[in-house]
Design a protein that fits this description.
GO terms for molecular function: 5'-3' DNA exonuclease activity; 5'-3' RNA exonuclease activity. This protein has a single domain (2-226), classed as Alpha-Beta Barrel (TIM Barrel). Helix content is 35%, strand content 21%. It has helices at 19-28, 43-58, 93-102, 142-155, 186-195, 207-225; strands spanning 2-8, 33-39, 65-73, 78-82, 106-109, 133-137, 159-162, 175-178, 198-201. The protein has a seven-stranded mixed beta sheet, with helices on both faces. It has a two-stranded parallel sheet with strand order 6-7. Strand 1 (2-8), helix 1 and strand 2 (33-39) form a beta-alpha-beta unit. It binds zinc ion. Residues 7, 9, 71, 110, 164 line the site of zinc ion. Zinc ion is lined by residues 7, 9, 71, 110, 164.
Length: 228
């Protein structure tokens, strides 16, 4: 069984840490699979993947696999897409799902009922092409997560739980068990997600985590304003 956190932001969007720092931190926390899913870019995920391959070549015991991903702002809301490579994706939901599947990617609506943070809301029910649904997001409200879990049950889709970490300390604050023994390739992880060989493990942010989260979002905005 593997532990996976499949929704993490790096410096390539609004995250604080580099892909290398995220990987180092995930290794320390005993996470086996991560996906770096920056807003509208695969850059962080691809850099992380290359770094994880480097680690695998140099050591035999410590292993971590990075699945390249993206949190794409579609016309209807945020969608997580996991791929083996950089894929140019359209922003119309139906076209996005088709293009992603043509390229063997896995498509998961991000925090669908957290409409404050661009969740799809009830639009999630309009499409049957989801491979899984993010049923637990450590940054979403309990009510939003409850409704996401309900959607996954109604639609018969597997559920994933993710941290949506923007700072290192939140990596792994929620995670998903992948029910396979070992993952040496991205394909194996994507297949397991498609087959629903996963089990979400809910987790949340402590008061301290939430204070750090707010502090970082203020700092990030200040950096942007100052062009830092
Ligand atoms: Zn996110």
């Amino acid at each position: 069984m593997l532990i996976a956190d499949l929704h993490i932001h790096s410096v390539y969007s609004d995250g604080k840490a580099s892909p290398r720092e995220i990987i180092r931190h995930a290794l320390i926390r005993g996470i086996n699979v991560i996906s770096i899913t920056d807003h509208d870019t695969f850059k962080g995920g691809l850099e992380g993947y290359r770094f994880s391959r480097e680690i695998a070549r140099n050591t035999s015991d410590t292993k971590i696999l990075v699945v390249p991903g993206i949190e794409l702002r579609s016309y209807s809301g945020d969608i997580l897409v996991y791929c083996e490579n950089d894929v140019e994706l359209p922003r119309e939901v139906g076209l996005l799902i088709d293009k992603a599947h043509e390229n063997n990617c896995v498509v998961v609506p991000a925090h669908p009922f957290d409409t404050w943070r661009h969740g799809l809301g009830d639009v999630v029910y309009d499409y049957d092409g989801w491979d899984a649904i993010e049923v637990w997001n450590a940054h979403a409200s309990r009510n939003a997560n409850r409704r996401a879990l309900e959607a996954s049950r109604i639609m018969g889709k597997p559920g994933v739980a993710n941290s949506d970490a923007h700072i290192l300390e939140h990596v792994g604050s929620a995670y998903t068990y992948i029910l396979i023994e070992d993952a040496s390739s991205i394909t194996e992880v994507l297949d397991a997600l498609r087959k629903g060989l996963i089990k979400p493990h809910q987790g949340g942010l402590s008061l301290k985590d939430n204070i750090e989260r707010v502090a970082w979002s203020i700092e990030y905005r200040a950096r942007k304003i100052l062009g830092d």
